[in-house]
Design a protein that fits this description.
The complex is a heterodimer of chains A (834) and B (287).
Chain A (H helix, E strand, L loop, with lengths): L60 H12 L7 E4 L6 H14 L6 E5 L9 E5 L4 H24 L1 H31 L2 E6 L2 E8 L2 E2 L2 H5 L3 H58 L4 H16 L2 H7 L23 E5 L11 E4 L4 H5 L1 E2 L2 E3 L2 E3 L5 E2 L2 H5 L3 E5 H6 L3 H11 L1 E2 L4 H5 L12 E2 L3 E6 L1 H10 L3 H4 L2 E4 L3 E3 L2 H17 L7 H15 L4 E3 L2 H17 L7 H15 L1 H11 L10 E3 L1 E10 L2 E15 L3 E4 H4 L5 H18 L7 E7 L12 H13 L2 E3 L2 E3 L2 E2 L5 E2 L4 H15 L6 E5 L10 H8 L4 E5 L2 H9 L17 H21 L13
Parallel strand pairs in A: 1-16, 1-17, 8-13, 13-16, 21-26, 23-24, 26-29, 29-30
Antiparallel strand pairs in A: 2-3, 2-7, 4-5, 5-6, 9-12, 10-11, 14-15, 18-19, 20-25, 21-22, 22-24, 27-28
Chain B lengths: L14 E5 L6 H13 L4 E8 H6 L7 E3 L5 E2 L3 H26 L3 E8 L1 H11 L4 E5 L8 H10 L3 E6 L11 E5 L5 H12 L6 E7 L2 H15 L5 E7 L5 H11 L3 E5 L12 H6 L4 E4 L1
Parallel strand pairs in B: 1-2, 1-6, 2-5, 6-7, 8-9, 8-11, 9-10, 11-12
Antiparallel strand pairs in B: 3-4, 7-12
Helix pairs in contact in B: 1-3
The chains are: A alpha/beta (834), B alpha/beta (287).
Amino acid sequence: MFFKRPQQDSPGAKGGADVSSVAARPQPLLATELRRVVDPAKLGFKTTDELDPITGLIGQERALKAIQFGTSIKSHDFNIFVLGPPASGKTTAVRSHLHPKAATSPTPPDWAYVYNFDNPNVPKALQLPPGRARTLAKGMLASLDELRVVLPAVFEGEDYQVRRRAIDEQFRSGQDGAFETLNAKAQAQNIALLRTPTGFTMAPMHEGKVVKPEVFAALPEGMRKDIEVKIEGLQKELQAILERVPKADKSRRAQLSELNEEVAKHAVREALDDLAAAFADVNEAIDFLEAAGRDLIRNVGLFLASAEDDNAIVKQPLDVARDARFRRYQVNVMVSSDNGPNSGAPVIEELNPTYGNVIGRVEHLAQMGTLITDFLLIKPGALHRANGGYLLLDARKLLLSPFAWESLKRCIKAREVRIEQPTEVSGLISTQSLSPEPIPLDVRVVLFGDRELYYLLAAHDPDFLRLFKVQADFDDTISRSGENDQAYARLIASIVKQHSLKPVDAAGVARLMDEGSRLADDREKLSIEIGRIADIVREADYWSDQAKRKVTSKQDMARAIEEQTQRADRLRDRAQEVIKRGVVLVDTEGVQVGQVNGLSVQQLGSFSFGRPSRITARTRLGSGRVTDIEREAKLGGPLHTKGVMILWGFLAGRYALDMPLALAATLVFEQSYGGVDGDSASSAELYALLSALAEVPIRQSLAVTGSVNQWGEVQAIGGVNEKIEGFFDVCRARGLSDKHGVLIPRSNVQHLMLREDVVEAVRHGQFSVYPVASIDEGLEILTGVKSGERGDDGRYPAGTLNRLVEDKLRSFAERSRNFSKAGVGAAEDGKAPT
Amino acid sequence: MIAHVASSGEDSGRVVLQLGSRTPSVVALDAAIRIAQAFQSEIESVFVENQQLLDCTSFGFVREVSLTGRWLKTVSREEMASGLRFAANNARRQVEKLARQADVPLRCRVVRDDPLRAISVACAETGPWNVVVLAEPLLPGDGVFLKQLMLEIEGATGLGVVGPKAERCSGPAIIVVEDTAELPGMLMTAERVAALDSGAIVLLLMATREDQLAQMEGEARLVVGGREDVRIATAEIDRGEAGVMAETLRRLRGGFVIGAYGGLLVPEDGDLRPLLAALECPLFLVR
């Protein structure tokens, strides 16, 4: 059978052959094959109230085993990366596994920072038995409070005052005595000792008054000389007395200091004794208490200064914890097992894993325009809190926080938490701040992330796989089976219980399981995206409330699913509308040469929908090149390009074994202005190309999806349900007929979970879904012309589609050879022959 | 006996604050301010440039020995005058600041004279209700000077002084009573001074004999009546036991000590040393 294209330049013109007259085509699928439906009666319960809620997860044995291993092995670099889709219950699973395990694990020690009396810039890290850090901190405050009262009292006491006065008097009497003696000596010699603003001076005196210069000048020279000598001598004596003052004062201060220490020592020992006894078994604590005691004795003046406040008109109780003078004696508890020594290991989740929140930070206080800090402003990070236990972090958030990832790795590798300023870490600014002693680290880090992130880290961060050796891979689906169906129902029961919802009846559960298969894009699987399923159940509970039902039913589930779709399908409606109004050209009836309806899927957040696109092909004599206009326009992705190149391989391999492929062809997704990727349209492109070559028209009431290989086999694609439904919606809008349908790869039949309205239309013969395994099968359905197989003579039977294609290509080859003989070069694509 | 200071605007007296070349005592300045506040009076600070110091500079052989004893040098008249001027300015700024804070009217002047005569002249100019406050701490050897002040200066009802150990003005007002006839007047003075602080008053009855003390206590209780703000303490002191008296005062931790000149507390010819060694607050001597 020969099809002649009536108008070569008009691919839209209706072709010649009567395609409906051809028989023996692959049969469409039955309605029952388009959707797997769970029979509520076979579930074995009436409502989820009858089911035991499931604890943990279903179908995640591999991941759970990995977590079990990762949390049990004793090695710092066997940290865990939990990978899987969002809302798959990863965190819940890990949490529910870790909490019981941590509860029975040894309780880690407490850690605190205390003042380093030898080197204040390097606060000391103090390890204490579990639960005792706060006891030490409170004990120190109590001791300080006691000293605040006791020390002033001791220093006000008669004993101290008498001894102090004795020292003062000793000094003063020595000074005053010498001075008075000199003064008396001077007066006896009629010499006045006078005080000037900056010192002392002497002058001749008569009757208690300095002699007037003119009177002195009138005195006999011998007398004047005598007075001069006396004054010079007295001045030297005065000088000697004054020079002794600093030395004597130094001695006085030393004696006072000695006295102060002696008096303070007893009070300080007394105040710290109880605490020292309580921590006698902790050497580090004893060292700290001794150092603090020594410092308290040396700086007893701090307490005496506060005593002066007693004279304040309004007397307020002094809070030692807030008094800047006593900060150095306090204890900064970084981490403490407040629930006692048997509280188990910590499981810490840091939801905002910034550098400071993970590693810890040294905070600063603004004071008089400057920033100051001390060891009490060291704040613990999640690593401190999780030390001895488990730390759960979101990998993406961690990586997005500056310095956090690198610092975490550094801590794991060094097995210690060292708090540094981010500016120091980056090496940008080096200001003198605190460098707290590092705290030994023993933590199991559990990171959560998606697969892409895991593989990116594995590929680009050499440390990653060395430090995170355990991969816990959470699946997003489970296989359908009687056992899994039951487990799934119990999972729904647990969601109901967790969120305190109304029970769901068996039909509702069955409907949800249908949706689970739909979400899995595979009727042999069930989605275990817990978050998404829980959302549907909770929304169905709402609609059940609205309908005043006591049990969530199938109708409520369907309503929830429908409402979710409706909230998200504005763009789908818009896409359907522009096709219906003829803005986007998609034929759904008649036939066309070189034109076929392809199907694509658009993903918008969690919602995806299919839409048909017109794919056209044109051919002519050329040098053997298929031009993919999408690629030329840089709108085609690599997978799409690959698909188009496979077409070339198919054409050459099937039709041009013994002749050059003197073909030039162009392929285009009409009215496609965004990018195109994926190879699911490659079979459609091949149909359009072969139709153009054979000049056999294609039925526009059908749409096609599926990729193709070089052998012409049609291969599975993704989103098959959305694609079928996309074309179905367009056809329904224009009026369904028994001609409408979609060709899908046979291997995709197992993934079919079509909407009920599509299944209904198929049941009534208004829509068909054709499973095809090869291009030949598809061609016969699309064109109504037999594809044909090569006979013994190596040629396709006359009138078959393959024969028509081969003949066309042969004619191109001959014409090309004739051009060559005539001395004219083979026509280049897009160029006139020269 | 009554200590009185003329109120501001009365034009019959004020607090005469005598400043000199020595660094003024902060407690003495505070005492002057408090007395002025207590009597709603004004302060006239008189910085005395001691004429004798200037005269000293005329002797070529006279040297100035520094406070530390590290240097010894001749000082010209100009240098001495300049040093005194700086000291006067410094003292003036200090007093002005305190007066401004306390909202007390202040007049300042600098005179070049003998210290005793300078005060005498100042008190004579406006009187008779002046109180003289010495800004420079009293030294053990200043007994003669104190006597001259108390006996020779007219136009002053009292004298405020501090010792080298002065450290506070706050605390109860302690009246040292040696003659109960003087008690009512001293009590009025103490009430005014104590009103600026806690309001507490302690009557320290002082006598050389026990029977004297007992009689004084009875009389004092009659004067005081049932007042809760007045406490009575006694001290039996033999003449010459100045150390015991000083220690008693110290223990009472007073903010002001009010007493009479010429008795057990401050004998006319006695040794000031024990009192000055224990005196931690200003001493307000009334005539």
